[in-house]
Amino acid sequence: MGSEMCIRDRHVGAAMVFARGQSVGGHWTADWQYGHVAVVERVNADGSVLISEGGTGFATFPAWETISNAGAYQYVHY
């Protein structure tokens, strides 16, 4: 590692970071112990982002979700 940064600027390919217990777009809550991550697939003109994600609670892989308050989260860039 070494060149990664956690910031609030989003771009395609960045990892979107959901803190422990943080609301995920108002639809569900990230794990209280581990949090959650997703991949930014598209940044929309209105500032929202389309993400792909997965995990044990998802019916499909990948699952797709649009997050409207995308500025409320951190992103890992390389």
Report on this model:
There is one protein chain. With 78 residues, the protein is mainly β. It contains no helices and 8 strands. It has strands at residues 5-7, 15-18, 23-24, 28-29, 36-43, 49-53, 63-67, 74-77. The strands form 2 sheets. It has a 6-stranded antiparallel beta sheet, with no helix packed on it. A two-stranded antiparallel ribbon has the order 3-4. The mean pLDDT is 87.
Supply the key terms.
78 residues; six-stranded antiparallel sheet; two-stranded antiparallel sheet; 0% helix; globular
* Largest sheet strand order: 1-8-2-5-6-7
User: What level of helicity do the residues show?
Assistant: under 10%
The SSE order reads EEEEEEEE
SSE-based structural type: mainly beta
Q: What is the number of E strands?
A: 8
Mean pLDDT: 87
List low-confidence stretches: none
Strand % is: 35-45%
Number of helices: 0
Radius of gyration: 12 Å
Question: Which term fits the overall shape?
Answer: globular
Q: What is the first-to-last residue Cα distance?
A: 9 Å
* Biggest beta-sheet profile: 6 strands, antiparallel
